[in-house]
Amino acid sequence: MVKAIAYLFLLLPLAAPHLASAQELVWAADAEGGAPYSFRDPRNPSRIIGFEVDLADALAERMGRKARFVQNQWDGLVPGLERAEYDVVINGLEITPERAEKIHFSNPYFYSTLTLTIRADDARIHGADDLRGLTAGVLRVTFAERYVQSLGNVTIRSYDGQVQQFIDLALGRLVLRDRAPGPEFRNSGSTNGFRHRYSEER
Predict the structure, then answer these.
(1) What is the value of pTM for the model shown?
(2) Domain check: are 140 and 102 in the same one?
(3) Rounded distance between C-alpha atoms, residue 118 and residue 92, angstroms
(4) Among 87, 111, 135, where does a domain finish?
């Protein structure tokens, strides 16, 4: 069975003393997560685009407010929410029991499968079990990180974003990803020489 992961777009602290602004909907994400989620416009890097931006704008409009984006690193999104630095997180965070003790979740808006992204010329890797004794790169504080840890005997490199993972992969390291590469990588040719395999649930 392919392992599917539920993602969400709206997270609220369980005991929020107030919203960050009465006139704005202040939302946070990690723009390094890549397209099509939230990412920097290649033609104007100061501008954030993606379907999560559209979700934030639509939510703010329904509330009669204006959306304002706040950048935060992936592993700092939930702590920042707990400190009331912004009103909501709109980003691809997995729903976990541990997080549910601290924050509220919306209904999931997409599901993702866990994939292995490896070099096309590496014939050693056919599934997750083949990672034992090798080095895997994962996004920090994700299901992928926990899953690779559970395999045992895998050297793990945890990353704050996607870009460095692809650089290291091109240098001969392995990457276990919980999302397929976004179009900004595929269209640029950055994933040439890579192949992808789905990880099966154990």
Answers:
(1) 0.71
(2) no
(3) 22
(4) 111
Residues 81 and 144 in one domain: no
The pLDDT score that the predictor gives to residue 50 is 93
Same domain, 102 and 119: no
Distance CA 10, CA 173 (A): 34
| Structure confidence by residue, pLDDT tens digits, 160-193 | 877 788 888 888 776 666 555 554 444 444 445 6
CA dist 19 and 85 (Å) reads: 9
Residue 74: give the domain boundaries: 4-111
Q: How far is CA 163 from CA 13, 58, 106, 182, 184, in A?
A: 30, 29, 28, 11, 11
Residue ranges of the chain whose pLDDT lies below 70? 1-22, 174-202
Residues 36 and 103 in one domain: yes
Q: Are the C-beta atoms of residues 6 and 96 closer than 8 Å to each other?
A: no
Sheet strand arrangement including 155-159: 155-159, 135-139, 174-177, 115-119, 194-198
**What's the rounded Cα separation, in Å, for the pair 114 and 116?**
7
User: What tokens appear for 178 in the block?
Assistant: 């919980």
